[in-house]
Amino acid sequence: MDLPRNWREQDSERLEFWWQERLRTLMREREVHHAIALFEEFELEQKLNINNL
């Protein structure tokens, strides 16, 4: 499940839902190190978006 690309601002809820579901899937599959990396990527993405406002 790759990160969807070309999201519009209106799609922010869908994007957040995608992140949450992906993290849940990784945790369920006991892929904790991948879940941590994905969460760190999410946090970085959030910081970049805030700085671009």
What does this 3D model show about the protein?
70% of the residues lie in helices and 0% in strands. With 53 residues, the protein is mostly helical. Helix 1 (12-28) runs antiparallel to helix 2.
Structure characteristics:
53 residues, 70% helix, flat
Give me the Rg, rounded: 12 Å
Given the C-alpha coordinates, what overall shape results?
Answer: flat
The N- and C-terminal alpha carbons lie at a distance of: 28 Å
Contiguous low-pLDDT stretches (5 residues minimum) are: none
**Rounded mean pLDDT score:** 77
Number of helices: 2
Q: Major sheet, described briefly? A: none
Strand content: under 5%
What is the ordering of alpha helices and beta strands?
HH
Task: Give the gist of this structure.
The chain has 53 residues and is mostly helical. It is built from 2 helices and no strands.
